[in-house]
Amino acid sequence: MAQFSVSSEGNSNSDYDLTAAGQELFPQIKQVLSKDGKRPSARRRSHITAIRNWLCHYATPHEATNLECVRGYLEAFFHLCEIDQWQESANLLLLQLYPDKDDNLSSQLDVWGYYQELFKLFQQLLGKLEQSREVWILRGVGNALSSLGNYQQAFGVYERSLQMAQVCEDMYGQACALGNLGNACEALGNYNDAIDRHNESLQIFQGISEPEEEAKALGNLGIAYDSLGEYTTALDYLEKQLELSKKINDVRQQSTALGSLGNVYQVLGDYQKCIELQEQKLKIDRDVGDRYGEGSAYSNLGNAYYSLGEYARAQEFHEQHLAIAEEIGDQYGRQTSFTNLGLVSYALGRYEEAIVSHQKSLGLAQKLGNRLGEASAFGNIGLVCIAKGDYETALTFLQQHLERSQEIRDRYGEGIALKNLGHVYGVLGDVSKALECFQDSLQVAQNIGDLPGEAATQGSLGNFYFSLGDYDKAIEAHQKHLEIAKQTGRRYAEGTALTNLASAYTAMMDYEQALTAYQEALDIAREIGDIHGEGLTLGNLGNVYEDLEDYEKALEVYQASFQISEELGDQHGIASALANMGSVFLVTENYEEAEEYLLSAIDIFEEIKQLSAEAITIHKLAIVYFSVELYESALEYCDRAIELAAQASLPLIEDSRMLREMIEQAE
């Protein structure tokens, strides 16, 4: 007799006899199969015997995966299909596996992330049952396709489900189909269409008095408005979802609403409110024993602390999510966890660790057939390659991100990929290609009404113009970024836009406006609790004070930036602060201190593989040695700077070559 007892991919720490439901069901199936009283053919008898063995005598292997634990039911399903017992096959998918849970076989497979298996099961039933059941079957096929990231295909299946429900005058089925069509539209970046479908779904559920489904529809509307950047409206619908869920005592819907509300507050930069809501969600999930929901809450908390720049806490929460995902066999959750852990490693400057995590996410996405996850993983690996200065490899991965996004018609992902490609082409000096990508990204964002995406691309476009030395156009783009950020109430984005504006003002030597913009950005970072952003902005303020030759003030803010980076374990931030302080000591002719700080910075930049920053810092150290007439050391570091600058395609290479000539002349 099979016992439900699994290890890393299990669903429970307790043992449960999974075959019990099958043993109870088999006599009913046997009665149906023999109702005509005739002796079955040898082929039919063979399948009936197989069905009995799989339902009643299947023994799960030691340390079985969740899929192996329910293999008996899946095998019985296909044997029933072989002898055209479609009704019994469908009933098997609706079989309640646990006496204390509402989840049936198909919903449990969904929780575990076995979407390809679900697709095969529901696909097998298409066109085999009466129209009223066909509505449910089409919904199952569409949901599996959607979970796999095949949104366009899912959309077509949902449309068929809606048409079938209309023919059958199945109002519940129509409302479900409209809600699913709304979700598919949102995934495809058609946010206004999504809202229209969700509104239709909501009206039907309200009309047929289905409060649980009404609450889901309200939540779907909230999420759609969130994607559209209309956060006030999003909060309104999500609050209504929470209120209705409390009224009908649907604790799982309460948990879902709290999580969604928290995610909106995170986008708005109210991280403390986000954390408060996610902790409420976590308490509910723990109280009801919803391990899947608990993992989701940990993931959301990790994202909130990531936004705060508290990367150690973010990593802790994402690791807790990963542990739960592995425990319950949630393959999608595992993939999400690896993605988030990769983002944390990236933020900490641990680029090799980041790539390993994103490759694990990519491998799982490909194994699961999750094309959206695959596309995102390509994009994330590309971003790490950019940080490492490996632009050719970055180009390859970002191009794959773009292609996958276009294949599945993920307009949101397409816009992000184009923006990032524009950045890489800009670094590689292909100005026309960079501008083309940025303009295409803007067009995508504007077409789908993605205000946050439009703002982000304006910011990237501004940085591109900045790199070209066209500061007027840079300021124009950053002003647009700032306007949209203010319009949508996204404080974090507002701080980013102000920082970029300040950089442009600094380059134009308009230090008064630069200081004002940096101070506003610093105030926002402190207001929303963005510790990492606070550290970065202090570093930028130090750069302005250094340009103003107020070296005492520059050292003061660089030291404050260093302390924050140390508290966060931000290796890149630590190295940048050390390099900045070393630069001040260099210009003030405190060469001993300059050497100490610059060497420390170089060690870290080399460890985290930041080629550009390492090259610039090595160049400064070469100047230190030249200034104290240590020409051999000066030449050594000058040559290293030239080599790294060449690898990273930096204009610094010319300065380093000129320095080398000066050193040789002085020898």
Q: What does the largest sheet look like?
A: none
Strand content: under 5%
> What global shape is seen?
elongated
Rg, nearest Å: 29 Å
Which CATH class of the domain at 503-666 applies here? Answer: Mainly Alpha
CATH topology of the domain at 503-666: Serine Threonine Protein Phosphatase 5, Tetratricopeptide repeat
Distance between the termini: 86 Å
Find the count of extended strands (DSSP E, 2+ residues). 0
Enumerate the spans where pLDDT stays under 50 for 5 or more consecutive residues: 1-14
Task: Name the CATH superfamily assignment of the domain at 503-666.
Answer: Tetratricopeptide repeat domain
Helix content class? over 70%
The structural class is mainly alpha
**What is the tally of helical segments?**
34
Task: Let me know the average pLDDT.
Answer: 91
- CATH architecture classification of the domain at 503-666: Alpha Horseshoe
Q: Can you give keywords for this protein?
A:
single chain, 667 residues, mainly alpha, Serine Threonine Protein Phosphatase 5, Tetratricopeptide repeat, elongated, disordered N terminus, TPR repeat, repeat
Q: Would you kindly provide a written description of the structure presented here, covering whatever features stand out?
A:
- It is found in: Cytoplasm.
- Pfam families: TPR_12.
- The chain is an all-alpha fold and 667 residues long.
- It is built from 34 helices and no strands.
- The protein has a domain of 164 residues: Tetratricopeptide repeat domain (Serine Threonine Protein Phosphatase 5, Tetratricopeptide repeat, Alpha Horseshoe), CATH 1.25.40.
- Helix content is 81%, strand content 0%.
